[in-house]
Amino acid sequence: MATNCNTIPLLLPYKMGNFNLSHRVVLAPLTRSRSYNNVPQPHAILYYSQRTSNGGFLIAEATGVSNTAQGYPETPGIWTKEQVEAWKPIVEAVHDKGGIFFCQIWHVGRASTYAYQPNGQAPISCTDKGVTPGLDGVDWSPPRRLRTDEIPIIVNDFRLAARNAIEAGFDGVEIHGANGYLLDQFMKDQVNDRTDSYGGSLENRCRFPLEIVDAVANEIGADRVGMRLSPFANYMEAGDLNPEALGLYMANAVSKFGILYLHVIEPRMIKINDKYETPHNLLPLRKAFKGTFIAAGGYNREDGNKAIAGNYADLVAFGRLFLANPDLPKRFQLDAPLNKYNRDTFYIPDPIIGYTDYPFLEDSS
């Protein structure tokens, strides 16, 4: 995409480590629940390639690191040979169109049920306190607290998943440390009630996620590793009493490993004196982290342009808008109208409806 003085900030090129991006519009990792029996399917080839532009950056949906990592229907994994082989043509399709593709590696922790666990065992977490049954309409099962000596096994699962992702052809991995899943459960003081070296102080609560970052960076190279965080959120009842301190500690800590990027979810707007505003922003984290900074969370074209122009972020990840508009960068360029997303088809198993049937702009432009 040639740049000229009329190029909007979101469509300016950017060098992310060794990757030359043609624009700043990132496909956010989105669970789509269409990987039957945890194996990526051929219909994902079309879905991801539709959303690929030459020099565009895509992050794949959350992908389980082991057979204890699942908590949702039909989500993909990357711990078996079959899964690795199934990812290969999907990754190849993205590369064929000039895209850069990272795999988000994930463990749900306590956000699971007996039905998703091997032999119907309890989900694992930092705690034996469960998510309130009925939250989001799911009867979450009480978790089992990981023993101290089991933690290295989980770290190793992430390391192997990262190696498998590279074998599948991905350009790198994003470690999922957000949204109330396993790493977030360890970090957040409202969930982690441990008394060993993985609980209590901020440093102890962040120890496990940072061991994963270290192991993954050593396995595939820090220049192929990103991490997603949501310190300000309380998804899955994973909240923290001092989210600024948590976010800042993690931004500084992962920066020391020299990882490629940090991907952070914006604080939610809350009502203060009849006005919606947010008491927090990501600027301190952005300043602390030395690599590429990606902001996410309800952005539109105008907000995204402002974030880039104001140097608040290097890249902006779009989820629902990109889901519904496979040619989102082009629509932003032309300021074209956007397709509306249909929430009812986000997580259905249909291989086409709500997945690959969102229309492109007429190629009349």
Largest sheet: 8 strands, parallel, barrel
Q: What low-confidence regions span 5 or more consecutive residues with pLDDT below 50?
A: none
Q: How many DSSP E strands? A: 15
Percentage beta strand: 15-25%
Total helices: the number is 11
Can you tell me the overall shape? Answer: globular
- Structural class determined from secondary elements: alpha/beta
Helix content: 25-40%
Gyration radius, rounded: 20 Å
Distance from first to last alpha carbon: 15 Å
Strand order of the largest sheet: 3-4-6-9-10-11-14-15
Note the run of SSEs as H and E. Answer: EEEHEEHEEEHEHHHEHEEEHEHEHH
> Roughly what is the average pLDDT, rounded to an integer?
96
Give a description of the structure.
The chain has 365 residues and is an alpha/beta fold. It has eleven helices and 15 strands. The protein has helices spanning 43-50, 81-96, 151-167, 182-187, 202-205, 207-220, 243-256, 283-288, 301-309, 320-324, 328-334; strands spanning 14-16, 19-21, 25-27, 57-59, 63-64, 100-106, 124-125, 144-145, 172-177, 225-229, 261-265, 270-272, 275-277, 292-296, 315-318. It has an eight-stranded parallel barrel with strand order 3-4-6-9-10-11-14-15, surrounded by five helices. The chain has a two-stranded antiparallel ribbon with strand order 1-2. β14 (292-296), α9 (301-309) and β15 (315-318) form a beta-alpha-beta unit. α3 (151-167) packs parallel to α6 (207-220). The longest helix is centred in the middle third of the chain and has 17 residues, at 151-167. It starts with 13 loop residues before the first strand and ends in a 31-residue tail after the last helix.
